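<goal> How does this chain fold?
<sample>
Here is the protein in question

***
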Amino acid sequence: MPAFAQSLAVVCVTLAFFGLPDWAAALGLGLATWIVTGSLSDTWRRAGDGGLSKKLGRLQMAPLSVWGMTLGHMGLGVLIVGIVGVSAWTRDGAAVLRPGQSALIAGYTVQLRSLELDVAGPNYTATRASIAVIENGQTIAILRPERWRFPGREMQTTEAAISTNIVRDVYVAIGEPQDGSIVVNLYVKPLVAFIWAGAVIMAFGGLLSLADRRYRIGVGARDSRALAPAE
């Protein structure tokens, strides 16, 4: 029940903050909260009765599979938070800029500082831009996206530049230059790091479970029975 109550509270807070259109995100966050808090509550119940010191002592002696299960569920919850962030709150926009110009895109001020044409690469020529991403008057990243042209194959590719932290990833890409200006595309994807962190936590939980001595003994016993000669 406490896990369900906490999940319901998260759903209500999300709806109050972001509004009714984000009901799917609210349900996703509520599900993640239920998984994490439910797993932690179950692990705490396994410690049994007694004072805090006794419970902590029992948890220290708990099998690795218990901690593996707990971490696995926590990782799933963190993963769901990341998926919700990317799915519900991704923002993007574009602007045509000349060197020295700036524009407000997806909540960030984007300034095109320089534009280099026909930069020679190993088997291509590139258009390279130097772009400042500014938030609340502070430059948070200088990104240098490129656009590659392969003359022999008449093909072009876009090489986006990325600024990342635990809260969000910012991607910047450029289009084909025209008359000294260029299209700057900016994408903001919140909580991408949570997806990676959740996957790592789940993998670590799986490794802990596999390291549990009880499972290794069980596997060895089954192998011994399988290899025993028939009478």
